[in-house]
Amino acid sequence: MKRTIDWKEAFWLGAGVLPSILVTIGAMAAIVGTPSILVWTLSTAIGFVQLFLYAELAAIFPNKTGGASIYGAVAWLRYGKIFAPINVWCYWITWSGALAVTAALAGNYIVTAFLADTPLAKFSITLLDLSAILPGITFKLNGIILCSAAILLLAFYMQHRGILQTARIQFALALLSLIPLILLAVVPLLTGKINPANFVPFIPQNTTSWLSGTAFTLMMGGLFIAGYITYGAEVAVCYVSEFKDPVKDTLKAITVLGAVAAACFIIFPFTFLGVLGMSNITDPAFIGGDPQAAVVKLAEVTFGGGSGKLLTLMLILALVLGIVTPMSGSSRTLYQASLDGLFPKFLSKLNKHGAPTRAMWTDLIFNMVLLSLGNPIFIIAACNVAYLLCVFMNLNAVWMLRRQLPNQPRAFRAPDWLVYWGGPIISLLNLSFIIFGANVFDPNALWYGLGAIAIIFPIFYYRHYVVDKGVWPESARKDLEIPE
């Protein structure tokens, strides 16, 4: 791939993770109650510490692209061929699944705010109804889905001319959407709009003690949900092979993005709860992931009455920003996994601009299918389970690679205590969030996640044993020191 960007462009490419918290503030408050701000703070701290382990992973393989799981997969290969594709697959479906959820919300805004009285808003047909055998599964087509698909196509087009062009577009989108949102969160802190009464009683809802089993379960469920958002700054290491100076740019990109993201992930929930109170942030629409009404109310309290359509347009731009980030990262995961012999071979092609267009098309088609499902809850549940599992694998991969590849140059080395003690402990914490917290999100969340992960088995079997005859590609064996 072409080395055309530095850490600043990588920051803007990853900036789409910043507004993602807006769609989960309501759901978190509805589950945990006022201590939701504590959950966001704890999860943000965990996510920030993890970034230094991801930085070392990326430093080992400066010629690779696609994110932490691509690098961590090398360590797990020593313990069985299937572990590597599981790790990478979990990472890919996490980021790719976010595309459909975000695009659907943006499509809904476009229809309700600008096309409400048009035939498109009333259009709806059912393509295939499987609800009799798979509850909640109905393939359909309507105006919102068509608008969502158009946004995905726009995001695809924006990336077609290469990573540098994409970064420049992300910069413009960030200026138009993130700055107003950040002001919306910060100004109430400076003008005394925070009401301390909105934080009491500071105890998990429907409990009488922090030491109760219910309180523990609710907090674990909250941390299970929060990790999907607060760990997102690690997307900065998806572009290592495209950095002009991977030695310097990798650490700068991930730490700067991580610091800005950490501030947003703590301030946004605090401001929403402090200004609006539980009754407003647990509005059914906000709980369901639609932040529009809550943003409008916060703007009215902060700045006075304003234009609802202008705020909606700002949110749409923020969501487009949030679509480009996972599409650019997940397509590179597909591309690199194909080169390494883990995913289908046809994905390992770049266009003349150095963009992995075949991988981008795969992302696009996969998410078109998800959009036609109407984004039932199992998509988010499956992504959460898969993501925390790959985080568990990646954090342990750092100390495993210290032992497996001790002489491999590392432009950055995380502190030994973090590699050998902190990383494994945090990895077990993430695993416990799945075990104790997944069912708080949805009763079948764990099964949804395991079902989604199982899809990789036939895909990897066909690539490795049918296409490659059980032999790793030469480039993978040489570059990643994959054993026979």
3D structure, described in words:
- With 484 residues, the chain is mostly helical.
- The protein has one domain: Amino acid/polyamine transporter I, CATH 1.20.1740.
- It has 19 helices and 2 strands.
- It has a two-stranded antiparallel sheet with strand order 1-2.
- A hairpin with an 8-residue loop joins β1 and β2.
- α5 packs antiparallel against α13 and α7 runs antiparallel to α14.
- The longest helix has 36 residues.
- The radius of gyration is 22 Å and the shape is globular.
- The two termini are 27 Å apart.
Report a brief summary of the structure.
The chain has 484 residues and is an all-alpha fold. It has helices at 7-14, 25-32, 36-60, 68-77, 83-114, 119-122, 143-159, 163-190, 213-230, 246-281, 284-287, 292-303, 308-339, 357-372, 377-404, 416-441, 445-454, 456-467, 474-480; strands at residues 124-129, 138-142. The chain is built from 19 helices and 2 strands.
